Amino acid sequence: MSPSTLRQPRFIQMHGQERAAVRAELAAGLIAPQAIISPKYLYDALGSRLFDAITELPEYYPTRTEAALFKEHAPALAALLPPHATLVDLGAGNCEKAARLFGWLQPARYVAVDISVDFLQSSLSCLQRQYPALDMLGLGMDFSAALTLPPEAGEGARVLFYPGSSIGNFTPAQAVHFLRQARAAAQGGGLLIGVDLVKPVEILEPAYDDALGVTAAFNKNLLLHLNRLIGSDFRVQDWAHQAYFNATLSRIEMHLRAVRDVSVHWPGAQRQFRMSERIHTENSYKYRGADFDALLRQAGFSQTTVWQDPQGWFAVFWAHG
Ligand code: AVI
Fold first, then answer.
1. What predicted TM-score, i.e. pTM, was given to this entire model?
2. Between 89 and 48, whose confidence is greater?
3. Across-strand partners of 240?
4. Would the CB of 281 count as within 6 Å of ligand 1?
5. Least confident segment among 41-45, 189-193, 200-204, 255-259
6. Ligand 1 pocket: which of 38, 166, 170, 220 to mutate (most atoms <8 Å of CB)?
7. Residue 46: its H or E element
8. How confident is the model at residue 235 (pLDDT cuts 50, 70, 90)?
9. SS3 161
10. Strand partners, 36
11. Which among 54, 174, 178, 199 is the best mutation to test ligand 1's pocket, defined by most ligand atoms within 8 Å of the CB?
12. Alpha-carbon distance 238 to 227, whole Å?
């Protein structure tokens, strides 16, 4: 193939939330008695880089535990998953995790989905040069709200790939809603999903409050992102990172805690935070394997296969039917 005939990935940016709606959502969260901001706002350009750094921290076990599971069980996966399906990578980022499966799964098409196609441009173009015969599509969409793929994502069976335990950032009720939509979007294929499991608090909490302070920076960077989005005047030094395991709800909670009395202003509104008042920024649910299996069945999947690491820290599920 000469350079001029090299296949290029296609890109589609789906319609996102209007800026005014984003501002209204954020302002409502900030003035709520218990202030709360959706974790999706942790991921501006710097937040995405900080998250990548988190995945390399010694305390953050999920990424490497999941990678080892995929490496060890790739042949078994390849035997179970439909051959030559469309591989839909939800939250693709740098596309690396899915690319490691190409050799085993031999997908007919690769659809990389992320909130913005800008994040996908360079990684997908680079991947296309490595796999010139593979049909590739980059899709910019916020699938946390609704997972309806456009016709360009192709007909026939799809393998929806949702690694990284991002399902844990939904409440269990939101997770079931998402899983139902994933089942419909799979068009008779299935869902390959990574799930973080319950484990001792001595392992869980440092993963979200690391010694280097990268997770603290990731959490506080949300304030800088908010300042840009709504024109607020948050000062990072007025806030401390807090992360702990809520055993009753089986989730890590991340908060930003005011270290002194703080007044925050933005066009049209303001809020006084007393010292120690908090903004809830993220939940990360930890499941027991059987409980997640039950969620998959509640969402309509009738057949599930699960792989776990020897310590039982992380699980990969293949759900279909
Ligand atoms: C993206 N998500 C699965 C991460 C998690 O573990 O819940 C986000 C994260 N927050 C703090 N550290 C990592």
1. 0.96
2. 89
3. 257
4. no
5. 41-45
6. 166
7. helix 45-54
8. very high
9. strand
10. 280
11. 54
12. 14
